Amino acid sequence: MQRGEAVARIERVEASAYKIPTDAPEADGTFEWNSTTLVVVELTAGGQRGLGYTYTDAVAAELISRVFAEELRSQDAMDIPARMIALLRRVRNLGRPGLISMALSAVDAALWDVKARLLGVPLVRLLGAARARVPVYGSGGFTSYSVEKLQSQLSGWVEQGIPRVKMKVGSHPEQDVARVRAARQAIGKDAELFVDANGAYSATQALALAERFAEQGVTWFEEPVSSDDLPSLHRIRARAPAGMAVAAGEYGDGGLYFRRMLEAGAVDVLQADVTRCLGITGFLQADALCDAYGVPLSGHCAPALHVHAACAARRLVHLEYFHDHARLERMLFDGVPELKDGALVPDLSRPGLGLELKRADAARYAMGART
């Protein structure tokens, strides 16, 4: 884009899906899986290519290429609010939550990436930084893991300098106290220990287990019940042991979802996910709401995609360094930020998000590109 040029027309919108096997079977309190599907959006404008992605079903690629691309072609990539308003109107009768919001999230990230590239700056410079580095917590500890594998993974993160780690609970509630105790033995007394039930417990179960988890120094109880059950989240938050934060929000699909959760007093820490909450735009909206309500914000998964927005978020406390996504992003993208002293730092020498798809490496996992 030349200096003084006012418009950068969107020329192409391409979407592709990749299915990558996990390195071992994975499970949480309510779900089991052995692969992860990544949907990548590449948007070309003014001679620059922007990239965004989400973790969802491959049908999102068809939606992007058939419906969203028609709305975006020939429009100005610089005016991201106008592009997203038009897309939200376009999907009104399709049912916006869920898969459609995830597809929109990938497009929004690609728009921000291409805009920063057109301006020749890293995205965090365009957004404005609140911090230079993003603290992370190691996340995995799947309920499908043996106790030995659980201990090895969590202690490995602590040895790398990550001062907080998270494990899954809820598949077998009768085993959870013993597994949490084993995790604490592995990581030592100083590292923070988080648990995530993925909505597997009843409110009564969650409150009883919260007391037992607190004995092992657990400071974070994520989705003790379903995120849709705001009254129960509020009840658990009100009665949880001192020093234990109740967290939820990872399925949020925009500002209204987050506002309802905050108005209900349902969380001590709000989670938001760039791949689900309408992208960079939605993540920063979640941050603004957290600022208004005086609640901390935590980024959920997709660490490489979050880094620039997380640096710009005023209320952010940390970002989830999710085992499956961190592994996958290193496999498929160049420019993934390195983990240093328990934090991720954006590479300010690279424009935009700083990520490039490794096409040859990704090709073996392709489910069929759609243009």
Report on this model:
By secondary structure, the protein is of the alpha/beta class. It has 2 domains: 118 residues, Enolase-like, domain 1; 229 residues, Enolase-like C-terminal domain (TIM Barrel), CATH 3.20.20.120. Helix content is 40%, strand content 23%. The protein is built from 13 helices and 15 strands. Strands 4-5-6-7-8-9-10-11 form an 8-stranded parallel β-barrel, surrounded by 8 helices. A 3-stranded antiparallel beta sheet has the order 1-2-3. Strand 2 and strand 3 form a beta hairpin. Helix 1 packs across helix 3, helix 3 crosses helix 10 and helix 5 packs parallel to helix 6. It is globular, with a radius of gyration of 20 Å. The protein starts with 9 loop residues before the first strand and ends in an 8-residue tail after the last helix. The model has no long low-confidence stretch (mean pLDDT 96).
Kindly summarize this structure in a few lines.
With 371 residues, this protein is an alpha/beta fold. Helix content is 40%, strand content 23%. The chain folds into two domains: 10-120 and 357-363, Enolase-like, domain 1, CATH 3.30.390.10; 125-353, Enolase-like C-terminal domain (TIM Barrel), CATH 3.20.20.120.
Counted by DSSP, the helix tally is 13
Poorly predicted parts: none
Distance between the termini: 24 Å
Q: Any idea what the shape is?
A: globular
As for the number of domains, it is 2
User: Based on DSSP secondary structure assignment, what is the total number of beta strands?
Assistant: 15
Order of helices and strands: EEEHHHHEHEHEHEHEHEHEHEHEEEEH
Q: Helix fraction?
A: 40-55%
Mean pLDDT: 96
Strand content: 15-25%
CATH superfamily of the largest domain: Enolase-like C-terminal domain
* Main beta sheet: 8 strands, parallel, barrel
CATH architecture of the largest domain: Alpha-Beta Barrel
Helix-and-strand structural type: alpha/beta
Give the class-level CATH name of the largest domain.
Alpha Beta
**Strand order in the sheet with the most strands:** 4-5-6-7-8-9-10-11
CATH topology of the largest domain, by name, is TIM Barrel
Radius of gyration, rounded?
Answer: 20 Å
